[in-house]
Amino acid sequence: MLVEALRQEIHQANAKHLILVSEIALSASHLSTVSEDRDVAVNEARALRAALEEVELELSTTKMRSAIGHRRLAHIRQFVSMSKQPLLK
Fold it and tell me: What pLDDT does 86 receive?
């Protein structure tokens, strides 16, 4: 009886040990997945930030070109309006 009780106790302890090892492995796997997901998210965020910076640069360049274009257009309009004025006599 004592031997059988010890065997049962050892069997239960082994079963608990296997369950704990399985839970630890599952947790480690989950942490690995979370870590990989975080790395992917960080890389995507960096790529989005780089794309945003490119768009901001392009927008500022476009605004600068637009301002230059508006100034040139204003000078052309001024020149045209001056050329339409009658000459002083």
Answer: 67
